[in-house]
Amino acid sequence: MAALMMMIFIIPQSFFWLKLPFLCAVLAWMLVVGIHDHWKIRSSAFLPYYLIFCLLTVTWCIVGLVRVNPEIAVLEALRVYVVYMGIFCALGIYVSNLEYQAYVDRVVIAGAFGIGAVALYALLDHILQLGWLPQSIKDDMYLQVGLHQGYVQMNNVNIGILTFIVPYLLSRVLMGEQDEQRGWMLLGLAVAVVSAVLASRRVVLVLLVITPLLAFGLTVLAGQANQRHLRRFTQFYTLPLLIAGAGSLLVIYGGFDFLDGFSGRLASAFTTDADAPRPQQHAALMAAFTDNYFWGSGFGGLTSVIRSDERPWTFELTYSRLLFNAGLVGMGILLLFFCTYLFLTLRKIRHSAHASILVSLLTGFLTVLIATASNPYLSSFDFLFALSIIPLILNTTDRPHQRSAVDEGATQ
Fold it and tell me: What tens digit of pLDDT does each residue of 164-221 get?
């Protein structure tokens, strides 16, 4: 299972043929051991999570067929949100019956190192023309590098996974105890952040800033917050302010004009160009939404803006597309669905001895949802692991939470 997760982290959205043997091995092992009733579904909310998800998918696939949308688009939705979610349901049962809390940090850290190694190779290959990998592999992984004034841009497919890895590791560093894993977590976090900077993946850098606030909010809602957490989260925000201040001084007085290009690249994430692809997609989706605002278009709906000639029903803006496809009814049901399960998850964490890990997992889940707003991450098999974090936590075997002496002292 660890090998499968490593491949999901390092080579997402590619090389499915390589992941398939590991996936089949895990599912076969589950089937063999399951005959002896080894795997337990302890949470009554576990199976309904996947069943409701699949039921909603089927419902809006039917809506799409009624509206005569392309059948291939409807089949694609069934494949991703029914078949793939069914696979992750089985994997969730398998992992939640293990003591995965002892290994999750190592897997995420290894994933950060793997993504960093790929980013470093892509950069050196572009500069030095190393040619160690066949062009077919580079094309599958989108190892494309652009050197611009003040910043580098990469399109590696695995950079998107940093929307989970960076928030998870940062949350663990800010919330975790001093142990032997902390040094590796700091190193993994540093590698992941450098990879995001090299790729100029602005959403990851934005998530880096908001993650402490998000993680602390979850600890408060889960009843796990203490003064030590508050002190760490507050101290963290001094670092970005110092870096931003030093960078501004270097640009203005130090002659480091190359930093101006990087800061301009970051600032562009908060500006809107009406002629850019995403604003055009949003305008077209909202215009089409008004035609079927109650039930939506169903999966496979088309608009006046086409992102891909081969798959014209796909868009980068996930939630704009979801509102267009599912309408007010579908969006309302989904909002109620996730709010209910978020409440159940926080209640589970409240009594957990592994609250730091579980809150960090939940933080990563939420940051992936945030990043998905402008990226179609949840349309692929690999990123669906994020949607299985909530049922994984709910079905986790855990010891009741016992406040340590450190926690007791920190609250006084």
Answer: 999 999 999 988 766 678 889 999 999 999 999 888 888 898 898 899 999 989 999 9
Answer for the pair 158, 380: CB distance below 8 angstroms, yes or no.
Answer: no
Q: Is the pLDDT of residue 87 over 60?
A: yes
- Which residues have CB under 8 Å from 200's CB, separation 6+? 151, 152, 153, 154, 262, 265
* Residue 243 banded pLDDT, cuts 50, 70, 90: low
What is the CB neighbour count within 10 angstroms for residue 239? 9
User: Is the pLDDT at 412 greater than 50, yes or no?
Assistant: no
Reading phi first (left if > 0) and then psi (alpha if -120 to 50, else beta), residue 272 is in beta
Which residues, including other chains, have CB under 8 Å from residue 169's CB and lie 6 or more apart? 108, 109, 112, 185, 188, 189, 192, 360
Six-digit token string for 213: 């606030």
SS3 222: coil
| Inter-CA distances, 15 with 4, 21, 109, 280, 368, Å | 12, 11, 21, 32, 22
Can you read off the two tokens belonging to residue 302? Answer: 């088309």
Average pLDDT over residues 235-241: 71
Q: What angle do CA 129, 131, 137 make, to 5 degrees?
A: 125
State the number of CA atoms in the 13 A half-sphere of 62 facing the CB. 7
Q: Count Cα atoms within 13 angstroms, Cβ side, for 126.
A: 18
Give how far Cα 259 sits from Cα of 123, 148, 240, Å. 19, 11, 15
pLDDT at 371: 94
**DSSP track, 130-162:** ---S-HHHHHHTT--EEEETTEEEE--GGGGGH
How far is residue 90's CA from residue 84's CA, in Å, rounded to a whole number?
10
Q: What is the CA angle 309-310-312, rounded to 5?
A: 60
pLDDT band for 288, please (50, 70, 90 cuts): very high
For residue 17, the Cα-to-chain-centroid distance in whole angstroms is: 22
3-state SS assignment for residue 313: coil
Instruction: Determine the pLDDT at residue 269.
Output: 61
Chain centroid, CA 238 distance in Å:
26
Measured CA distances, 162 to 108, 166, 172, 244, 335 (Å): 10, 5, 15, 22, 25
**Residues forming beta bridges with residue 400, ordered by sequence position:** 352
CA 38, chain centre distance (Å): 30
